[in-house]
Amino acid sequence: MLSKRAKYAIKALLYLHQNEGAAPVSAKAIADREKIPYKFLENILRELRQHRILKSERGAEGGYRLLKSPESIKVSDIIRIVDGPIALIPCVSENFYEKCVECLDEKTCRIRRLFGEVRQAMLPVLDKSIAELR
């Protein structure tokens, strides 16, 4: 299940993309418009800034802007930043692989094979960019 953090991160990025313009957008404006708890959103925006997805500007007219182009920000990358692995079990994750301690043979594991298929089916959808979600 997608966490609220990931969902809110995606909603915030979509809002910033839709409201790109001369002025940066405040966290308060995003929180109010998207119905996201303000303090929760501040932490998410800080994390996206640390990963160089957003940039922030201080001051009375300050706020957030996309640092990367919306075409280069993939939903899968945002989920990985906020939640970690996309794979539902660690032994099929390409970026966060961990061997299952109870597994005797990964090559013949039917559970691993099933969830590998699930991951492969989900990835093309989650690799859409923020710009493609308009």
Write up this protein.
This protein is mainly alpha-helical and about 130 residues long. Helix content is about 45%, strand content about 5%. The protein has two domains: about 5-65, Winged helix-like DNA-binding domain superfamily/Winged helix DNA-binding domain (Arc Repressor Mutant, subunit A); about 75-134, no CATH class. The chain contains five helices and two strands, in the order H-H-H-E-E-H-H. It has a two-stranded antiparallel ribbon with strand order 1-2. Helix 1 (about 5-20) packs across helix 4 (about 75-85) and helix 2 packs across helix 3. The longest helix has 17 residues, at about 110-125. The radius of gyration is 17 Å and the shape is elongated. The model has no long low-confidence stretch (mean pLDDT about 90).
Properties at a glance:
single chain, 134 residues, mainly alpha, 5 helices, 2 strands
Estimate percent helicity: 40-55%
The CATH level-2 architecture of the largest domain is identified as Orthogonal Bundle
Q: Indicate the low-confidence ranges by residue numbers.
A: none
Please name the CATH topology of the largest domain.
Answer: Arc Repressor Mutant, subunit A
Structural class, please? Answer: mainly alpha
Q: What radius of gyration results from the CA coordinates?
A: 17 Å
Average pLDDT, rounded to a whole number, is: 92
- Number of folding domains? 2
Number of strands: 2
* CATH homologous superfamily annotation of the largest domain: Winged helix-like DNA-binding domain superfamily/Winged helix DNA-binding domain
